Amino acid sequence: MKKHSTSLRVRLPVLVLVLEVLLLALYTAFVTYDNDANAKLQNNETKPMDNALYRDYPYFADIQVMIFIGFGCLLAFFRLYGFSGMVFNFLTATFAIQWAILVQGYFQFSHAGKIHLGVINLINAEFACAVVLISFGAVLGKTSPVQLLVMALLEVPVFSVNEWAVLKYLRINDAGGSILIHLFACYFGLGATFVLYRPRLNEGHAKENTSYQSDILSVMGTLFLWVFWPSFNSALTLKGDDQHRAILHTFIGLSSSTLTAFALSAMLNKNGKITMADIQNVTLAGGVTVGASVDMMISPAAAYALGVMGCTACMLGYKYLSPFLARHLRIQDQCGIHNLHGLTGLISCAAGICAILTATEEVYGPSMYEIFSHRAPMEGDPKLLELQELIPGLQPGLGRSAREQALYQVAAVFSTMGVAALGGILTGFVLKLPYLASPSDDLCFDDELFFNVPPHYDCPMALNGQIKTDDSTAS
After folding, report:
1. How many Å apart are CA 253 and CA 239, to the nearest integer?
2. Ranges for the Ammonium transporter AmtB-like domain (predicted)?
3. Labelling 161: which of 130, 201, 202, 398 has CA 20 to 30 A away?
């Protein structure tokens, strides 16, 4: 009975078939090419290098590497869950991007009832996919592929609506996605895992451990994420000096968080040794912490300091906060997303608010009103005409003061956290429904439940302090 309840033979094919029919129908009805991909709108005088492809595709390719290789390898850190970590990431990411093209396209790229598809749509869809994969980390090892597809199906629309509402009505600055991506993904995942709480897992699980090989594979994922994170943070910034600063700040933040992670790992370990889990996760904290202010004139020193602060908060969170949340608040955060994306995201938001409050024309020049576009003078303001002479094409803004913009940033933080947590809780209840092939406690963190695994894939395997070996090879 238990084996039947987790069988994918009917559940997964039926769900995938229904989703594919739905996607095909929606793509047929609503998706067309954008101007740069439409042959009818091009001619012999068109300069190929003016096509958005050459401006945006390198960022798309870099984020693809992060999504499919970086996240995939990173999530394969459990000894017996390597197939699931990598392959469920592959499955979920592929669907999430396809679905996000439609959902986000409706809000951002639709015109005359059609979604105009270009590379920039794909980049936006990848960000939505990253949100789903971060949330996946909170329920890693405890969910079936059917549950993960359902989670992506529900999370992408909630994320897209929140993103649309925040950008349309609150008009915030969030180039690196600290609010809209990291905080949302974190609290959505925590909401889902709160509902999916398993009391027996707080006592520890025999298969919830790593191996030499799985830790190496996971660190490879970290390295891919580390190398390509500057593209993630700079993909949607204004081209030119803004994008240049975003790349510089991200690299500096990642570098400082990496050095700090090695130092803290050795210092907080009783035997003074380095812990692989710290290298796999905490080294990335700087990439998140600089996100909200990544395109601003915060100075390289501030980016360095943010990397150190983010790393420290992340490290302490893994050591002290995660166990507390599991024991007392029913939040079993399997990958520690609250530490790497939640705590660091909050620090990043605070830094972004400080950067907004201290931004002046003396530091930025007239381009301040491009970076902080909502602080630009309103239509009809004489100052707007003066600025447009210096910056042709500058659009009218909302005439906000620095203080007003900062307050809108604060509102975006709390509204995003609230929407994400509520969406995650409701999604958690859906994932608890029967027939979604949820694994039992005993079968968590084990590839054998959903995969044809090689013989003796679990040998040698340390269970309860003993080494299990095949009888034919034991001496």
Report:
1. 21
2. 26-434
3. 398
Is residue 467 in some structural domain?
Answer: no
Q: What is the CATH number of the domain that holds 272?
A: 1.10.3430.10
- Nearest-angstrom CA–CA distance, 73 and 208: 17
Owner of token pair 């390289």: 300
Residue type, 463: L
Q: Which residue range(s) make up the domain with 333?
A: 2-41+49-441
Closest CA to 175 of 230, 257, 101: 230
Q: Would you say residue 453 lies in a domain?
A: no
Q: Digits of tens for pLDDT over the chain (475 positions)? A: 344 478 999 999 999 999 999 999 999 999 999 999 998 888 766 787 788 899 999 999 999 999 999 999 999 999 999 999 999 999 999 999 999 999 999 988 777 789 999 999 999 999 999 999 999 999 999 999 999 999 999 999 999 999 999 999 999 999 999 999 999 999 999 999 999 999 989 888 889 999 999 999 999 999 999 999 999 999 999 999 999 999 999 999 999 999 999 999 999 999 999 999 999 999 999 999 999 999 999 999 999 999 999 999 999 999 999 999 999 999 999 999 999 999 999 999 999 999 999 999 999 999 999 999 999 999 989 999 999 989 988 999 999 999 999 999 999 999 999 999 999 999 999 999 988 999 999 999 999 999 999 988 877 544 444 444 443 333 2
Please report which helix (H) or strand (E) contains residue 323, including its range. Answer: helix 322-328
Chain centre to alpha carbon of residue 472: 46
What ranges in 166-297 are assigned the alpha helix state H? 184-195, 212-234, 241-268, 276-281, 285-289
Read off the amino acid at residue 201: L
Question: Is there a domain that residue 462 lies in?
Answer: no
DSSP 376: S
The answer to whether residue 474 is domain-embedded is no
31-33/114-117 β-pairing: parallel
Whether the CB-CB separation of 90 and 72 falls below 8 Å is answered with yes
